[in-house]
Amino acid sequence: MRILIVEDDLQLQENVRASLTEHQYVVDVAADGEEGLFQASEYPYDAAIIDVGLPKIDGIRLIEKLRANDISFPIIILTARDHWQDKVQGLNAGADDYLTKPFQTPELLARLNALIRRSAGKATPIIVNGPLAINTQSQLLTLDERDISLSAMEYRLIEFLMLHPNQVHSKTTLTEHLYDQDFDLDSNVIEVFIRRLRKKIDPQNSLLFIDTIRGQGYRLKSLLKE
Known about the structure:
The protein contains 8 helices and 12 strands. It has helices spanning 10-22, 33-42, 59-68, 84-93, 105-119, 152-163, 171-178, 189-201, and strands spanning 2-6, 26-30, 47-51, 75-79, 97-100, 126-129, 132-135, 140-143, 146-148, 168-169, 210-213, 217-220.
């Protein structure tokens, strides 16, 4: 999952970025509202964390601009202000949740995880597709209740596919959601990780759970549990 942090407190920005990266998120950062607006308009994010008190364009106005441009990813606002009016203003502007500074990182992670799940129509951390199941909280994949060992990138890929089943995703789309801005979008790395997932999860080719759509990309099928 790819997250945008818009925060002008550089120490807090770095602390949040490091925590999210440690939990397998891909993170881009911006230090003011103008840069946040540009990045949010240029790249496909799964969620954003936006401070209210930003320079150039404040957080509330930034959220209003994003929603006016039909950018619909979930947004958590951060505010140092403890007045309920500020929280209401942020939510009315289009934010989905809020945290008041100072906050605990586990709470931010839990709220972020919940918002991403809900935006994909999933109500719980455990997402099931036939014999496959992932726990987005513990970041574990099981096949028929047996743990499957995955690298960090393999997990990111299967999580994204499990959150968006029956949709065709191009290599470019997958790369943009799984890597930061500087990654080479022409790389065949997605093809490599798809091959690894198939080998680990379906070595006998009995599930055929990931379709290759020629000229378009990949699709995770909905599976029926036997």
